[in-house]
Amino acid sequence: MSYENDLIAKIAWKYYNEGLTQNEIAESLNLSRMKVIKFLEKAKTNNIVQFKVNLDKSYNMDLQNEIKEKYELSDIYIVPSSTQNIADSLKIAAAQYIEDRITRDTMINIGYGEAVSKTLGNLNISTKYKVTFVSLSGGVKFYMPTAINTYSDYYTNPNYTHYIMPSPLMVSTENLAQEMLDEKPIKEISQMIPHSTITVVGIGALNEKATLVKEGYLNLNDMEILKSKGAVGDLLSQFYDIDGNVLQIDLHKKLISTEISMLKSLNHVVAVAGGIKKREAIIGALKGGYIDVLITDESVAESLI
User: Fold this and answer.
1) Domain boundaries in the chain?
2) Mapped to the 3 state alphabet, what secondary structure does the chain carry?
3) For the CA atoms of 117, 110, 166, 209, what is the dihedral angle to 10 degrees?
4) Which CATH architecture fits 60-303?
5) Mean pLDDT lowest for which of 69-73, 123-127, 181-185, 232-236?
6) Hey, which end of the chain has fewer CB within 10 Å, N or C?
7) Average pLDDT of every residue of the chain
8) How would residue 149 be classed by pLDDT, with cut points 50, 70 and 90?
9) Which residue has the higher pLDDT, 118 or 179?
């Protein structure tokens, strides 16, 4: 099921089965009422709604509701695992999710890594909306979509504004990290973060595909040491255990990054992560209460229950 069909089925379910009004659905899904009306019409056109919600078109609705209840999520969107490239499906779904929720001037916090970069690279937002992007950590500029990507309007939309921390992700000492965090340009960007509309982050696993390994900040030996200390994944390059407890390690003190505890206080934190190898990392992030919305694939979703 595509992201759009999933959203249509979700709206139809809430309207026809749960009896919510269009305004209540718009509020619960953070959409405009006009989008809700549009998707309800599409539900009829696509035969998702006949005399009742056609569950053959939304086979995973029960699974979604079970995951939401278990992990206290606001929402979850599931893409098929049968697609050739799960990462491509996730980034498209995440980009569409963001697009559907931009109805006025919007500030989007962006995390570190390829999942976020690929999501931004697939955005196609109307030029009538002003969108501000604010980085949650240093090193983000290396992951921004490039102008070479002809499918992206990230660098061509005149109403996009960027506030990117002018620093690397990690420095050599704790003192240097603190000095940089206290510098005015970085401090001013950090002060914008709590005022965001949406926050988009990736979830990292401890393997050779981790962005921190690819970029040379850590090696596979470092990952094994982190695993021995109980780490299962990272958010904003900060490692946590299966219950979402952040590890107390020196590496974190050298980061130029927003502390992941702040994610709990931000509006609408969306995590984009899939692939069964990230199962434990995703579970830790969910148990820690760091995210509000999860965009993932079938195999991971089924493994969460």
Assistant:
1) 1-59, 60-303
2) CCHHHHHHHHHHHHHHHCCCCHHHHHHHCCCCHHHHHHHHHHHHHCCCECCCECHHHCCCHHHHHHHHHHHCCCEEEEECCCCCCHHHHHHHHHHHHHHHCCCCCEEEEECCCHHHHHHHHCCCCCCCCCEEEEECECCHHHHCCCCCCCCCCCCCCCCEEEECCCCCCECCCHHHHHHHHCCHHHHHHHHHHHHCCEEEEECECCCCCCHHHHCCCCCHHHHHHHHHCCCCEEECCEEECCCCCECCCHHHHCECECCHHHHHHCCCEEEECCCHHHHHHHHHHHHCCCCCEEEEEHHHHHHCC
3) -50
4) 3-Layer(aba) Sandwich (3.40)
5) 123-127
6) C
7) 88
8) very low
9) 179
Single-letter amino acid, residue 184 = K
State the pLDDT confidence band at 147, using cuts at 50, 70 and 90.
Answer: very low
Domain 1-59 has CATH 3.40.50.300: no
